[in-house]
Amino acid sequence: MKKRIVTISREFGSGGRTIGKLVADKLGYKFYDTEIIERVIEETGLAREIVEKYDEYATHKNSFLYSIAVNAGGDNYSGLSFANRVQVAQVNLIKKLAQEGNCVIMGRGADYILREREDCLNVFIRADMGFRARHVLENYGETDVKIEDRLRDKDVRRKVFYRSFAMREWGACENYNLMLDSGAIGIEKCADIICSIVKE
């Protein structure tokens, strides 16, 4: 079956977003990353600061309420914490985007949310610490925080977010159809590999 949806999870600094954008451009697919934040702000009426705070991040204390909310479905956010409102809105939106088809969706547990779809290719992008550090410094610059600590912090937060509702491990090979090392293969080549699979 043709893959109409590509989800890309990635280690921070691995170039995953760049790869996702390249894939979308090469295939003529829609690309969703920060666009999801804008749509969630519209959907929930929450302030940008709140949506950005909880986008792709969660804590274990949120997971039980989140599970109840997602299983209940619908767009009723009353009684939910800000974190859960953002997460439920993201789930609903990702399902809607997938239904529209032909798109690349970055992170946000989309591989898990869309796990029952056969037209979905789930990809994980990784790279070694040296490559990631260079990539982040070149694209985002330095901060007061050591680069290694920035990388670890982002990855840990993504792991917790993913585990909070998927109840499985972020980055574990069994959760994805394809895992690529962008440091070893190169960003452009990673995009080409993904496109070649989608086109088969």
Features:
single chain, 200 residues, globular, alpha/beta
Descriptive notes:
By secondary structure, this protein is an alpha/beta fold. The chain has a single domain, classed as P-loop containing nucleotide triphosphate hydrolases (Rossmann fold, 3-Layer(aba) Sandwich), CATH 3.40.50. The protein has ten helices and five strands; from the N terminus they run βαβααααβαβααβαα. A five-stranded parallel beta sheet has the order 2-3-1-4-5, sandwiched between helices. Helix 2 crosses helix 5, helix 3 packs across helix 5 and helix 4 crosses helix 5. The longest helix is centred in the last third of the chain and has 20 residues.
What top-tier CATH class fits best?
Alpha Beta
Q: Remind me, CATH topology?
A: Rossmann fold
* Number of beta strands: 5
Q: Round the mean pLDDT to the nearest integer and report it.
A: 84
The side-by-side strand order for the widest beta sheet comes to 2-3-1-4-5
Largest sheet: 5 strands, parallel
Gap between N and C termini:
9 Å
Binned, the helix content reads 55-70%
Strand content: 5-15%
How many domains, in number, for the residues? 1
In N-to-C order, the SSE pattern is EHEHHHHEHEHHEHH
Tally of contiguous helical segments: 10
Give the structural class: alpha/beta
Radius of gyration, Cα only, in angstroms? 16 Å
CATH superfamily: P-loop containing nucleotide triphosphate hydrolases
The CATH architecture classification is: 3-Layer(aba) Sandwich
**Judging from the principal axes of the Cα atoms, what is the shape?**
globular
In terms of per-residue confidence, which ranges show pLDDT below 50 for 5 or more consecutive residues?
59-73
